[in-house]
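Input for the complex:
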Amino acid sequence: MDAIDRAVIALLQDGIAPEPRPFEAAGRALGIDEVEVLDRLGRLLDDGTLTRFGPMFDAERMGGTFVLAAFAVPEDRFDSVAELVNGHAEVAHNYARDHALNMWFVVATETPERAETVLDAIEAETGLLVVRLPKLAEYYVGLRLAP
Amino acid sequence: MNETRRIAMLDDVDRRMVRATQDGLPLVARPFHAVAERLGTTPEDVIARFRRMIAAGVVRRIAAVPNHYALGWRANGMTVWDVDDDRVEALGPRVGALAAVSHCYLRPRRPPIWPYNLFAMVHGKSRAEVDEDARVIADLLGDACRARDVLYSTRILKKTGLRIGAAKEN
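Predicted:
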């Protein structure tokens, strides 16, 4: 990753405007052409530096819901439980964390009822108690990483 | 305590547009033209719909999502705090305003397994950096905070984002 890659990431993290040729505008800001922006973006996605490029939807504004949930998974079942949890398309993120509650995942669905259904299913499939931690208030969301 | 949020009404074309782009935007010079072609509409329509969805907050932005591990931000600490209910509403936004905090939420306690109600996500290049940020938060919370912990993520098991209609389509 070179300095231009870092500049591409910094700029594209803030987002592009919906316009006919968004990468041309990004290229102008970066001093490279549109093709190079696309080449670098494609490579950063392929090598895993970026996980995704596209619209970031707010599920709640669409009437949907995000629920954070956690459970304590026995170490010898960790990988198989992760596979079960990740197998649900509604599971948007899943992280291993160093705590008695060692698996933390987020269920994103169109309705709160659907989230409950998914969490119930995960509980039934794993036989593990899922601790549900829905958001009560949001004080700040604004992740920006300096690359 | 519960937020009242305006629910944006999406029509059928909006929803098809969400489904067509939730895995990402096509990496071509004219990505909105490519989406329009897939949906059988015009690029102007797709662009207008995205502008509307951004204005309504349905789309936060159209952007790159970095893998923070790959960028060297290897320490991802979920700092959690048991903060006095009477004071958390005033203190939460102050914690959220700290530069190191990327997300800050109030969530229910689930005693005895989970005594914490305030969550502040902190990203750093090392655990020492995150621990230092946690100290700053602890100072800010002062005697309103009864207990605290930092949960470091050790592995990303999945990171995809929202999937609309996934259950029906997959």
